[in-house]
Sequence to fold (307 residues):
Amino acid sequence: MSSNDKQNLNQSDNNVPDSRIRQQKKKVLTVMLLALAVVVVGIIMTHRYSVHHETIKEAMRDAVLHDINQVRLPGGIMADPSLISGFIVTALLLVFALLLRVFALPRFQYVPGKLQMLIEMWVGLFDGLAKGNSPHRNKALGAYIFAAGSYIFVGTMFELFGFQVLTSQGHSVSLPAPLANINGAIAVGCFSYLFIVFGGVVANGPKGILKALKEFSLPLSMTFRLFGALLSGMLTTELVYYYITLSFFLPVVVGVLFTVLHAVIQAYVLTMLTSVYYGEVSEVTESRKKKKKEDKDGEGDVQPQQA
Fold:
């Protein structure tokens, strides 16, 4: 075989992978064009069936104030849908924790399975935050930020399920995240601040209160950080849902993207801030350390005399 024949053979071998890559690219491009065509056809076909019982201004106003789409509870009590979401999320977390304690924890092994690894990773994340930011006092802190982080994460992800309820006006609305209501965000922010004050009092007595009061704006920042982040995602999704040219495909992508990002980021941010400030106010001061040391020395001197 001549050298020219060998070169032609090598070139033909190199062209085979290139042709396969071109075919794969054509297939991907064809699938994308077909998907885009389906979206366009769906938008055109659903245009005539789109009915809005409120304007975009009313929808966004109710997303902030929650004074229009309210649910009638037994006894004639009017409640915001986010309150119902809060009750459901709390009940789900408590039932899930009880089931884990009864059925899963007794079966944990030295070599963990998938469920055990997932639980250990989730608990270890908050335990690491507590020990890293408050090494001197972290047992109660780890439990609190674990509970708060789990509630924020699960509560934010809850709205992805789109559970429907009927309002007092007869309209169907999906249950939002519990913290999409300003009252829920205020409760979480204030309770976190009170927990920080409690840590300061336990560690340093009255001086701990003074150290915590220096950060008097902390509950406000926690509250509006939570509420603002969740509200921005909800308003963006409402805008996308409202306009017909976007309401067939984009809300799924936009809603999932904003919800997952906010769930992860807000759970991490609030637990991080709580653990950092708790570590600062619960750190034992020098005078208190000296007093404890003197008390121990005094006990050591008294014991030999009694002997």
